[in-house]
Design a protein that fits this description.
Layout (H helix, E strand, L loop, with lengths): L12 H8 L5 H9 L11 H14 L2 H12 L4 H13 L16 E7 L4 H15 L4 E8 L5 H6 L2 H18 L3 H11 E5 L13 E6 L11 H7 L2 E5 L12 E4 L8 E3 L21 E8 L1 H8 L2 H12 L5 E7 L2 H5 L4 H7 L3 E4 L4 H5 L2 E5 L8 H9 L4 E2 L7 H4 L10 H13 L1 H18 L2 H20 L5
Parallel strand pairs: 1-2, 1-4, 2-3, 4-5, 5-6, 6-7, 8-9, 8-11, 9-10, 11-12
């Protein structure tokens, strides 16, 4: 793996603010340093806060900006968040000239992501491996901006973040076909850059840019957005099927048929590169699981209708052992409050709502992965389920990541229909085995890095043509 020297950087917000010794920010500094949880709007005068944001932007200290934005702006103050987003997008990138890629030459690709851990970094690394598999690509720069990831920077060093990411990409390569070839690509083509400053960024700008955007603001990267788009073609890769129209981009990758010339259909490479050996359904599988992060379990439970709850109650009452486990809730107690009172009384003891947990151990006991209707996200967890011989039950929905990651013939008509299917699987393994086989075959196509890389490279070539057109969306 090609080494890039670590950037020298002070990660402490306290030392950063104290070094400014500006009396106008004494109140702001005091509140930020003493606040145990999130800083609430109203504690700091907004004018002072915005002035501080602009000062940090001018100083180009992205890490300090990340901390303040994460504490203060997250779902609390839209005005402040818009200011931060705009400031990040407008940070200039000096020293990079517009460049027209010469046909036939080896290309360098830059991936820019704001995430540093969790399932989303696994998806970013899958994109990197796919692009490294393309012969015409000489280098793949992965730039981790970390602009929203202050919780990571507080707990760990840049070198630790680098080490974790390097281990993950090597682990994924070893799980896929042709692991020796992929490891060789990592050694010679892969360059990992952690939170570069403006003056360092130009040397990592390739011929094409791939930016990653998520449904939550803090899963997206905005820094240098406008200035990079002025000089290079940009394609947006998304963590969610909900995202169809990003900014500062020529093309957005979507999972379904495109509606306009600025969309391209692309099913992402799989962030899960292994399969457990296919087996007959073992006895003793006594749970079915639903995995979503944040407040999506709470929202999913709230979306269920009477018919769904009746079908669910009938299923759980029909077996003394079968349970429903919901994994990933940010607030399990609050999510549980969404259970109807009668459901809590009748079958509450058979419903577990848990925070993020070890899915590997849970999937060993699971008969199925059950998705909520109209839910977004969860694609990585569903991919892992299929790899662990756990078939996925999901409705057809073009905006659902899980729906787009399994073949259409295995979709169900509704959540209630999914419960009926689950019951039939529990009683008879033949249909269970058939659906699992179809989903595994579909998933294997996403594990072919050479195919996914070539497909993505052709989309990048197409983005150059669009980039030459001054029209922006």
């Amino acid at each position: 793996m090609s080494a890039v020297p670590d950037q020298k950087k002070t990660f402490g917000l306290a030392s950063y603010l104290k070094s400014k010794s500006d009396p106008h920010f004494d109140k702001c500094l005091s509140i930020l340093l003493n606040e145990k949880g999130r800083v609430k709007p109203g504690l700091i005068d907004q004018d002072i806060f915005l002035a501080l944001i602009k000062r940090i932007v001018l100083e180009d200290d992205i890490i300090a900006l990340a901390h303040i934005s994460r504490l203060y702006a997250n779902r609390h103050c839209k005005i402040v968040f818009r200011e931060i987003k705009s400031a990040l997008e407008n940070i200039p990138l000096v020293g990079v000239r517009p460049q027209q890629c010469a046909e036939g030459n080896a290309r360098n690709i830059t991936l820019i992501a704001g995430v540093v851990d969790g399932p989303h970094i696994k998806m970013v690394l899958a994109y990197a491996l796919a692009l490294m598999s393309v012969n015409e690509i000489e280098r793949v720069y992965l730039v981790i901006t970390g602009e929203w990831a202050w919780s990571i920077w507080k707990k760990t060093s840049v070198q630790q973040v680098r080490s974790n990411i390097e281990k993950q990409i090597r682990s994924l390569a070893h799980q896929l076909s042709k692991p020796d070839y992929l490891i060789n690509c990592i050694e010679h083509k892969f360059f990992l850059i952690i939170s570069p400053r403006s003056e360092e960024m130009p040397q990592y700008i390739g011929d094409f840019i791939v930016r990653f955007e998520g449904p939550a603001a803090f899963k997206s990267t905005y820094i240098f957005g406008k200035s990079i788009h002025e000089v290079r073609p940009v394609v947006t890769a998304t963590f969610s099927s909900h995202i169809l129209e990003p900014t500062n981009s020529d093309l957005v990758l979507i999972r379904t048929a495109p509606d306009n010339d600025h969309q391209a259909k692309y099913i992402p490479p799989s962030p899960c590169g292994f399969f457990l050996p296919t087996v007959s359904r073992k006895q003793g599988l006594d749970i079915f699981v639903t995995v979503f992060s944040g407040d999506r379990i709470e929202k999913g439970l709230a979306s269920l209708i009477d018919e769904d709850w009746k079908a669910l109650a009938d299923l759980l009452k029909s077996s003394t052992k079968l349970q429903w486990w919901l994994i990933g809730a940010s607030d399990p107690t609050k999510a549980r409050s969404r259970l109807p009172k009668q459901i809590e009384k009748d079958i509450g003891q058979k419903i577990k709502i848990l925070p993020f947990s070890d899915l590997t151990q849970i999937y060993r006991r699971a008969i199925a992965f059950l998705s909520f209707p109209n839910a977004f996200g969860g694609g990585v967890a569903a991919s892992m389920a299929i790899a662990h011989n756990v078939p996925v039950i999901v409705e057809q929905n073009s905006k659902s990541d899980i729906s787009n990651f399994v073949p259409e013939p295995t979709h169900v008509k509704s959540f209630e229909d999914g419960i009926f299917r689950l019951k039939s699987w529990y009683e008879d393994s033949n249909e269970w085995k058939s659906v699992l086989s179809k989903q595994r075959e579909y998933a294997k196509e996403r594990m072919n890095m050479q195919t996914k890389g070539s497909e993505l490279f052709n989309i990048l070539l197409r983005s150059e043509h669009i980039w030459k057109n001054p029209r922006r969306f």
